[in-house]
Amino acid sequence: MRKPLFDFTDPDAATAWRAIDDRVMGGISRSAMRHAPAGHAVFEGTVSLERNGGFASVRSSPGERGLAGAQACLIEVRGDNKRFKLSLLTDDGFDSLNHQASFTPQGTDWQTVHLPLADFRASFRGREVTGAPPLAPANIRQVGLMIAARQAGSFELHIRRICLI
């Protein structure tokens, strides 16, 4: 069983995402999600550590994205060897608990990253939440991508698809 969450070969898929950068707390990092003419999305921008910043992120609009019994998330990407996080949220809130897993695309070739849902950790405002309930894959409503960990400078992550399996 496989459920596509986003297929970025469709030019309209990237329009469902909005930036949520460290500007929400006074930073000056900037990011965006756009559709590339080659038929995929690009999460790109610049991370700045100035003014206590240090992260850039994008998040999808809420929707019915869950899949009961899902065991993993697959993300087909190519990147610039920086570490990113995939976030899964089970509500429609802006500032709420999310479950995150990190990944680092290697090289410049397309690859499919397999992220077991058991490896996603509950987080709130960048801090792990101990004792939070595990991710309920049937209830996923929003998906996000983030670059943090003080990785200052420009970044680019190319994405073809995000699926639950």
Can you describe this structure?
This protein has strands spanning 3-7, 17-19, 30-36, 40-47, 56-60, 72-78, 84-89, 98-103, 111-116, 121-124, 127-128, 142-147, 153-164. The radius of gyration is 15 Å and the shape is globular. The chain has 165 residues and is an all-beta fold.
Provide the structure class.
mainly beta
* Count of individual helical segments: 0
Query: How widely separated are the two ends?
Result: 6 Å
Oligomer: single chain
Q: Overall pLDDT, averaged?
A: 94
Largest sheet: 7 strands, antiparallel
Radius of gyration: 15 Å
Task: State the shape.
Answer: globular
Taken as a percent bin, the fraction of beta residues is: over 45%
**Residues in helix, %:** under 10%
Runs with pLDDT <50, length 5+?
Answer: none
Explain the layout of strands and helices.
Layout: E1 3-7, E2 17-19, E3 30-36, E4 40-47, E5 56-60, E6 72-78, E7 84-89, E8 98-103, E9 111-116, E10 121-124, E11 127-128, E12 142-147, E13 153-164
Antiparallel strand pairs: 1-13, 2-5, 3-4, 4-13, 5-12, 6-9, 6-13, 7-8, 7-12, 8-10, 10-11
